[in-house]
Amino acid sequence: MTTAVTPRVTLAVAARVLTQLRRDHRTLAMLLVLPCLLQALLWWIFESTPLVFDRIGPALLAIFPFFVMFLVTSITTLRERSSGTLERLFTMPMGRLDFLSGYALAFGAVAAVQAAVAASVALVLLDLDVRGPAVLLGVVGVADAVLGTALGLFVSAFARTEFQAVQFLPAIVVPQILLCGLLVPRDDLPRVLEVVSDVMPLSWAVDAMEQLATTSATGQVWRDIAVVAGFAVAALALGAATLRRRTD
């Protein structure tokens, strides 16, 4: 099994994943439609207090792609391993990074569509107030979704069943949602929790979205995007080091 990334193999893995997703209508609906429906539901809940939705709406654009991609990727990768597909793939000249990079590329492409759809729904249909460039909403959404994909690939190595993969949600995802600034501004958190939130990647994505909602300046937004991307690369590297061919 090779260790270097081979573009041809990576693209072949990505094409295979996209073909599978195209045939799986339920997963596509979860990836593309569910974030929009959840946004619309919260908009409806806060219909009488639109300022509340304007405050939490940008954070939701970061949280939903992260959550959905983490869930779908961790379960899909585990299914590949438990069914023996992953072991058969590794009999070919393909490295772990080829596999993981191909998955990240495929889900990144889906994330681009997801981010565009979710941002369009929020801005056009739900009238979310954003002062920064609208296109950057999509960029942050893609970076955040790729982060969710990378973390899903990483944690799938430690699960033996799909149920165990889902159990990582309260351990990996929920604390980040609680501390990312959605419920309480991070500056108002107890000092210890504020420090913890600083090392959680979702916090940086939410910060970027909130910056776009409140100012047209983009310098800090690009910094936050770079941090999120760095976390995603680190998670992919860890995933390559821990990925197993099959479930024992």
TrEMBL record:
GO terms for molecular function: ABC-type transporter activity. Keywords: Antibiotic resistance, Cell membrane, Membrane, Transmembrane, Transmembrane helix, Transport. PROSITE patterns: ABC_TM2 (PS51012). Residues 22-246 form the ABC transmembrane type-2 domain. GO terms for biological process: response to antibiotic. GO terms for cellular component: ATP-binding cassette (ABC) transporter complex. Its main location: membrane. It is found in: Cell membrane. Coiled coil: none annotated. Belongs to the ABC-2 integral membrane protein family. This is Transport permease protein. The lineage of its organism: Bacteria, Bacillati, Actinomycetota, Actinomycetes, Propionibacteriales.
